[in-house]
Amino acid sequence: MQIVLISGLSGSGKSIALNVLEDVGYYVVDNLPATLLPQLVSHLRGSGYKRIGVAVDVRSGASLSALPQLLEQLRGMVDDLRMIFLNSRDATLIARFSETRRRHPLASDDVSLEEAIQRERDALEAIAQLGHQIDTSELHPNALRVWVKDFLELAPAEGLTLMFESFGFKYGIPLDADLVFDVRCLPNPHYDPKLRPLTGRDAPVADFLRRIPEVGRMADDIGKFVANWLPSYTRDSRSYLTVAIGCTGGQHRSVYLAELLGERFRDQARVLVRHRSSVRRASD
């Protein structure tokens, strides 16, 4: 039996993630009090369900504080337990609530939207680190759907999931980054008119960067750092580690290096490779 928990800030895309689960055949439950998770799993297992998706967030109230302990209990009940935590910058959340005219679950006549968002961040701080984090700021809904599907397709395994994520500094450092490497010092294919519209996944750009010694040295240095410290992160009982690699626009250098490093580590951990800014450009 597999269970996928969805949590995160209101307005960060939890409904999109739940819809993805439902579309691929999961039994989905939204806004379940955290303390009812064991009973739900037992009931649905008895009814023959194999894949369950559950949203647990600040709407659970006081029961949310029990979630870390409940996760340990659930791991003994199911074969595969996964958790996604969705995050977004305050400015993005405020804009989304303004556009949809929805009311934040913690807002009231005495609590502004900004204050409600901060209270929600404080309430979720303890569980944010328990799941695979996705920063949905500036992320197109279609890209989020793809990222959730990629996460679901990972084979069940013990240990740490390692993600290499490219991004553009012009759009800001991703909130889900654990380690950040700046590769803006490398030669930029953007200044070649033939390479400008391409990305680091395209052969002409990859060939251009592969021929530059500094690019190879940067890849080796980042790879050595991650390899040296990966055992320590694993011993820390972390389930997910995101290595963010940034260049100016997130289209060429960072994309190439994220792909290269992802291939290097596929035999050492479960690996995901994501391209934040290049996907964003394609979706605009």
UniProtKB/TrEMBL annotation:
The record's InterPro entries line, in alphabetical order, gives: P-loop_NTPase, RapZ-like, RapZ-like_N, RapZ_C
Residues covered by the RapZ C-terminal domain: 161-277
Source domain of life: Bacteria
Q: What protein am I looking at?
A: RNase adapter RapZ
Positions with a binding annotation for ATP: G8, L9, S10, G11, S12, G13, K14, S15
Q: Which residues bind GTP?
A: D57, V58, R59, S60
- Domain RapZ-like N-terminal, by residue range, is 1-152
Keywords, A to Z, come to: ATP-binding, GTP-binding, Nucleotide-binding
GO molecular function annotations of the record: ATP binding; GTP binding
Question: Per its UniProt record, what PANTHER family does this chain match?
Answer: RNASE ADAPTER PROTEIN RAPZ
